[in-house]
Structure formats: structure tokens, C-alpha cells
Amino acid sequence: MKELSVTLQNRAGELTLAREDDIAVLMSGVAVTLEALLVLAQETGSPRMGPSEE
């Protein structure tokens, strides 16, 4: 996902230079969202524990 995010950011930069601002903003937003999801996944990545059997 990190590689996809970087690729989207790079492509958004290229589109901005080509005056394709609408799609560039959209792609940049998707890239930021992917990075946020990566951070959340890392922070909540502790092992899951099932219900206790008592």
C-alpha cells in the first residue's frame, strides 16, 4: 500500500504540471487516505485475543 501511495502522489504531481488539477487533487487525497490507513493498521496491529473461556 505504501508503494501505491507513493505512486499516486508522484502521478498527482505530474498531472498538476499538466494542468489536470481535479484528478490530481483526487489522486493526492487517495494517497493521503492510504497512508492514514497504514498508520492505523500499524497502531492497531496488536495481536487479537479471542473471548476468554471461563
Give an account of the 3D structure.
The structure is a single chain. The chain is mainly α. Helix content is 72%, strand content 0%. The chain is built from 2 helices and no strands. Helix 1 packs antiparallel against helix 2 (21-43). It is rod-shaped and about 60 Å long. It starts with a helix and ends in an 11-residue tail after the last helix. 7% of the residues are buried.
Mean pLDDT: 84
* Number of helices, where a helix is a run of at least 4 consecutive DSSP H or I residues: 2
What proportion strand? under 5%
Task: Please describe the biggest sheet, giving its number of strands, its sense, and whether it closes into a barrel.
Answer: none
**What's the N-to-C terminus distance?**
40 Å
Helix content: over 70%
Give me the secondary-structure category.
mainly alpha
Query: Whole-number radius of gyration?
Result: 17 Å
Tell me how many strands there are: 0
Q: Which regions contain 5 or more consecutive residues with pLDDT less than 50?
A: none
Gross geometry: rod-shaped
Summarize the helix and strand pattern as letters.
HH
